[in-house]
Amino acid sequence: MSEIIYTKGRESQLVNQYNEIKAMIDNECSVRDVLLLAVSKLKPASDIKILYDHGVRQFGENYVQELLEKSELLPKDIKWHFIGGLQTNKCKDLAKIPNIYCVETIDSLKKAQKLNEARAKFQPDAPVILCNIQINTSHEGQKSGLLNEDEIFEVVKYFLSDEVKHIKLNGLMTIGSWNTSHEENAGENKDFATLANWKQKIESKFAINLKLSMGMSADYKQAIKQGSSEVRIGTDIFGTRPPKNEARII
Ligand SMILES: *Cc1c(COP(=O)(O)O)cnc(C)c1O
Prior knowledge:
Layout: H1 8-28, E1 35-39, H2 45-53, E2 58-61, H3 64-73, E3 79-82, H4 91-96, E4 100-106, H5 109-122, E5 129-134, H6 149-160, E6 167-173, H7 178-182, H8 190-206, E7 211-213, H9 220-225, E8 230-233, H10 235-238
Parallel strand pairs: 1-2, 1-8, 2-3, 3-4, 4-5, 5-6, 6-7
The structure holds pyridoxal-5'-phosphate.
Pyridoxal-5'-phosphate binds at residues 39, 41, 62, 83, 175, 216-218, 232-236.
């Protein structure tokens, strides 16, 4: 593995930004732990290495190919979260990554099945992959996620069945509507309320405990107020992202 180098200037910038958000989160919520997931999509491996050297171990990526390359390059004790739109035929590529930790965008039974099968086939001895079911709480057509109760229950049931040994249901995930997150004096966010509602419903029906992955740079404080267990922050830590065709890993 060749060494990944970075400048002192970038290091102090990223560490300061990360610490600031972390302090804000701890300030917002003292009664429970809220995971700060550093969303590193379209940012170079050197940025990830800076936060890794600062002690951060969990990072979120959106593109399978980019995640494959970064996971090869970077330390193997990183716990990768996949938070991008998931295609059924990419489930096997994710399952092959030994240290993929959590796939947050399971939005069909088929994808859960594929992921379990591929993990069993390609990485039978690696840790189980935690999974979040993505729910489309804003009912926006372009957003992924399940909407329908029967389908949601069907996927939960699959996770709880005996045949599933290589993936495990961890929680629910949503992306709040952009408009709702950017309203002034927004108050309660209805998408987050909807997700919290699903959590209650599923927990009581199936007697399980679920986590909530909700909140991004624009709306994480509100998400924490409404019960988030994990906020996914990119821009506020790493700065604005380059367009995809200009992004570089090294
Ligand atoms: C990009 C992304 C984030 C981070 O968004 P920021 O606004 O940059 O904090 C969080 N969640 C998902 C699903 C994303 O795609």
